[in-house]
Amino acid sequence: MRIELPDLPAMEEFGQRIAAGLQAGDVVALSGGLGAGKTTLSRAMLAALGYQSEVPSPTFTIIETYDPPAVKLPVVHADFYRLQSPAEAEEIGLDDYRDGAVLLAEWPENAGGFSHEPGCLSVRLEIAGNGRIAIVEQGADWLTRWR
Predict the structure, then answer these.
(1) What's the mean pLDDT in 81-85?
(2) Is 89:11 a contact under the CB 8 Å cutoff?
(3) Is there a smaller number of Cβ atoms within 10 Å at the N or the C end of the chain?
(4) Which residues pair with 135 in a beta bridge?
């Protein structure tokens, strides 16, 4: 499915739409080139989940965590851009962070990918003029939640 995101308000609304369907154990796999809007969309989802503070890009820390009551459910925001192999995701204890949380995964391919998981919503962002296009693929668990 292709979704036009012509401006920042459209990106924020898209983030709200995704956040409304999130459940513990889900993954939102965000791919696209540098500057495509992965972190912007992550920030929109976190805001929709109730987070009211600044959301730093996890490019250098790799993982940032957000826990209730600051958000409605635990969230792990990860940026795998700097990983050289999927084994590094294991080394940093990704599975421990993910337990009972939503994973917002930027550059998911660098961590081995998540599209095989039924709770994965894959979102590829592409620059289109001044806006973006989101190409969305749903895992099995999202088929009844995503409209």
Answers:
(1) 93
(2) no
(3) C
(4) 2, 124
Q: Is 141's pLDDT higher than 90?
A: yes
3-state secondary structure the chain: CEEEECCHHHHHHHHHHHHHHCCCCCEEEEECCCCCCHHHHHHHHHHHCCCCCCCCCCCCCCEEEECCCCCCCCEEEEECCCCCCCHHHHHCCHHHHHCCCEEEEECHHHHCCCCCCCCEEEEEEEEECCEEEEEEEECHHHCCCCC
Chain segment 32-69, per-residue pLDDT in tens: 999 999 999 999 999 999 999 889 888 888 999 999 99
Rounded Cα distance between 27 and 24, Å, is 9
Paired tokens of 35: 């500057």
**CA separation for the pair 55, 63 (Å, rounded):** 12
Sign of CA dihedral 12, 17, 23, 27: negative
